[in-house]
Amino acid sequence: MSKDQNGTFHPGKGKPSGANKEEGLGLQATPAEKLEEYLEITDRYTNGEDQLAEDVPVRHPNRNTSKGETTKTGENYNQ
To answer: Smallest Cα–Cα separation from 56: which of 45, 67, 64, 66?
Structure first.
């Protein structure tokens, strides 16, 4: 971290959000007692090794998640 002339700390520049991100569905650590449940869910929602089933609903990654929220911009800011 560094300071500017006013003494305010600024964090260093980081890596892009996609850095060190694995492609595919990935493997997650699962407790031994929940392994059977995990395997059933995996079989239900996947086809083969790293392919989602066709009937799994997937939202677009660039969808507008803040749609309908009011924002304080422009002329609405002073109201």
So the answer is: 45
What local confidence, expressed as pLDDT, does residue 66 receive?
82
Q: What is the pLDDT of residues 22-40, one digit of tens each?
A: 666 666 677 889 989 988 9
- What's the rounded Cα separation, in Å, for the pair 45 and 52? 6
CB 43 within 8 A of CB 49: no
Taking the chain, what is the end-to-end CA distance rounded to the nearest angstrom?
A: 38
Region 72-77: mean pLDDT is 59
Q: How far apart are CA 30 and CA 40, in angstroms?
A: 13
Q: For residues 50 and 27, what is the distance between their CA atoms, to the nearest angstrom?
A: 10
